[in-house]
Amino acid sequence: xxxxxxxxxxxxxxxxxxxxxxxxxxxxxxxxxxxxxxxxxxxxxxxxxxxxxxxxxxxxxxxxxxxxxxxxxxxxxxxxxxxxxxxxxxxxxxxxxxxxxxxxxxxxxxxxxxxxxxxxxxxxxxxxxxxxxxxxxxxxxxxxxxxxxxxxxxxxxxxxxxxxxxxxxxxxxxxxxxxxxxxxxxxxxxxxxxxxxxxxxxxxxxxxxxxxxxxxxxxxxxxxxxxxxxxxxxxxxxxxxxxxxxxxxxxxxxxxxxxxxxxxxxxxxxxxxxxxxxxxxxxxxxxxxxxxxxxxxxxxxxxxxxxxxxxxxxxxxxxxxxxxxxxxxxxxxxxxxxxxxxxxxxxxxxxxxxxxxxxxxxxxxxxxxxxxxxxxxxxxxxxxxxxxxxxxxxxxxxxxxxxxxxxxxxxxxxxxxxxxxxxxxxxxxxxxxxxxxxxxxxxxxxxxxxx
Length: 451
Known about the structure:
This is DUF1015 domain-containing protein. Helices cover 32% and strands 22% of the residues. It is α+β, with helices and mostly antiparallel strands and 451 residues long. Strands 1, 4, 5, 6, 8, 9, 10, 11 and 12 form a 9-stranded mixed beta sheet that branches. Strands 15-17-16-19-14-18 form a 6-stranded antiparallel beta sheet, with helices on both faces.
């Protein structure tokens, strides 16, 4: 069973700081070096100084980005920049955004709470993507230095009647505690709820539900590693110790406000690449359809391609390919029976995934990449925006691009329920949960309250 509890969250001091758009950021792992610098310049108290500090020449074990984050965190708390709630709370949030293509605005609701960390294989908290050691080592050094969780893990649960958010809305004031527009055009609101009766209702409804990790796989595994370190250091105590829990943003996967964007692939260089030979090889598994440019703008060309891909992807797998020398798009439609060549030992749920079709049949078998190369960020890059992806190839920054339809939420659920994992960057849940709305300070001597 999932154990959900309120907590004494730490927030910016809303009485003295009124520029929330300048204080918050997206999750650390989607922030580029250029954006990191922009957030540094945006405000002296921007959360970037905690989640993604700058490296300096001459960094040591005693003076580095992690120790500096810890010093900054302590100073901000002592100066009243950050304040901690006196009582446990649940934090209700809404993210309103434009899904594009002339569709009406959408709002995704969620709650920020603490969730008890589960051991691998418990069937309670279910991941769906691969993780990498370097990212986990980085986050473990940060949480160990600061004794705090600065970013929420994004989790999903099933609630067709939307009971949890409905109950939270009943307790929320008409005026949100926090309300602002972020630089990407999304609107964010947050209510701070301290009703004990609400805590009990939320805990009861969530008790028999698994939680699917949408975003933050590395941070979740890091929190479990940190918990294990604290258990060794302080001895095995009762499960209500603060380090037994991790801060999560939980959203209803049945809510219409949930959007998954595709994660397109950009490639710098292939081991050996000849356009004609490559297209001939692909015909073994795919039917190829040429999509010539119509002399429109890149955005209009991409919109037309996206519509064609969506139509073809409804009943199967359609992937688009673009290289500058091709001068046009190609839609690769998977042939009947081609999934059988992905490997007899591959789980049927994995064979349904467009990203696995692309990885195995195209990247490995047609282009000759090995798994190490496909995990190399110097070769592969990911972007959820089709126009930006195509433009990056036209500009010559990348050799080729492969454009995907979004992974379906039912496939995410099926993968997680079967204890399987997708390749990295298989999903892009939008909008990202902002970092800086609420922080979780971890005092090993503190306990959480059950309701």
